[in-house]
Design goal:
Keywords: Cell membrane, Membrane, Transmembrane, Transmembrane helix. By secondary structure, the protein is an alpha+beta fold. The protein contains 12 helices and 4 strands, in the order αααααααβββαααβαα. Among the domains are: 112 residues, no CATH class; 111 residues, Band 7 domain (Tetrahydropterin Synthase, Chain A), CATH 3.30.479.30. 62% of the residues lie in helices and 11% in strands. α5 packs across α6, α5 runs parallel beside α7 and α8 crosses α10.
Length: 343
């Protein structure tokens, strides 16, 4: 009745506002009424204001309410604001709720904040809980990395090839900041190779494969990692090459090539020296010829100065002829005397 006493324009404006308010309430009841009743009956109350605010923040209110109901039915009370905060941070609310329920059923202590931290760190929190409940087995070395066996060498120079399987269980308390499976595989592989290298002979590794597992377990390869090593088992042991003999053969081949290279070097130096001596001989021969060419000039000079007579000249020529004859006779083969026959 008070609206009738106002002016017509004011009354129309108020009627329009009332209409929009009633329409908005009807729309909220239509969209969130069933979801509100579902949450209320499940003892996981979420107010209309929270649902509307989720929609304005671009959050799927229906999914978050269902996650809250799921957790409440499993005996875990998580506030809708905490679920919304984790969703806005980029986390996977579904995996977090499922992991909390699985951990509760398996009597594993896991808080909501810890689960959110694991999820936001990029780890699969639900897979971590599954591995904690059901331990998994991995191969060492990892075949997907291209390595099939661990190749160790004993003190007698024999190569031992190992295949190892590791049983792991997730340690929830160390999952944030702990090392992953790659670190476990690397540490176990290193421990296996170090243990094999301490054996005097390969026969010890073949006779006692359990000794390898025991010594590796004592090294505590799971320190500061996400997992706890339950067992290390040697699947197979095979004998490879004789590394010591192979290295000795390679060393002998290297020494042989070194000696051959030195021989080739010395031969090259000898050939070079021979060529140098030939050149030096030619130079000396040229000097001798040049000196011999000066002899006639000296003789002529001696004749002109009266230091050499005709008889002296002929006596010199006779000596030269006699020398040449002796040289030629020395070059001819000696003819043996005829045998003496007895009559």
């Amino acid at each position: 009745m008070p609206l009738l006493t106002m002016c017509i324009s004011t009354s129309i404006f108020l009627y329009v506002l009332l209409f929009f308010f009633i329409a908005a309430c009807a729309g909220i009841l239509y969209k969130y009424g069933g979801l509100y009743i579902k949450a209320l009956l499940s003892d996981a109350h979420v107010s209309f204001a929270q649902m509307v605010s989720m929609t304005f923040r671009n959050v799927d209110a229906r999914s978050l309410v269902n996650y809250r109901i799921m957790a409440k039915k499993a005996g875990i009370d998580i506030a809708s604001s905490a679920l919304e905060a984790h969703h806005l941070a980029g986390g996977k609310v579904n995996d977090v709720i499922r992991s909390l329920i699985a951990a509760r059923k398996a009597n594993i202590h896991l808080s909501f904040d810890h689960a959110c931290a694991i999820d936001l760190a990029g780890r699969d929190v639900f897979d971590a809980i599954k591995t904690c409940i059901n331990p998994k087995v991995i191969d060492c070395p990892d075949p997907s990395k291209g390595c099939v066996t661990l190749d160790g060498v004993t003190k007698d120079g024999i190569q031992v090839k190992l295949k190892v399987r590791i049983t792991l269980r997730t340690d929830i308390e160390r999952i944030v900041g702990g090392a992953t499976e790659e670190t476990i595989i690397a540490r176990v592989g290193e421990g296996m190779l170090a243990t094999v290298s301490t054996f005097e002979t390969y026969k010890k590794a073949l006779e006692n494969p359990d000794l390898l597992s025991k010594l590796v377990m004592e090294k505590k390869c799971d320190n500061d990692t996400t997992f706890q090593i339950l067992s290390v088992n040697v699947v197979s042991i095979t004998i490879g090459e004789h590394i010591s003999a192979k290295l000795q053969a390679d060393q002998a081949e290297t020494d042989k090539r070194t000696v051959q290279a030195d021989a080739v070097k010395r031969r090259s130096m000898a050939l070079a020296r021979e060529q140098e001596m030939k050149v030096l001989s030619e130079e000396n021969r040229a000097k001798i010829l040049a000196s011999e060419a000066e002899v006639p000039r000296a003789i002529a000079q001696a004749f002109r100065e009266g230091n050499l007579g005709v008889m002296d000249y002929y006596h010199l020529k006779n000596i030269q002829a006699d020398t040449e004859m002796r040289a030629l006779s020395a070059l001819k083969p000696v003819i043996p005397p005829p045998p003496i026959t007895k009559t």
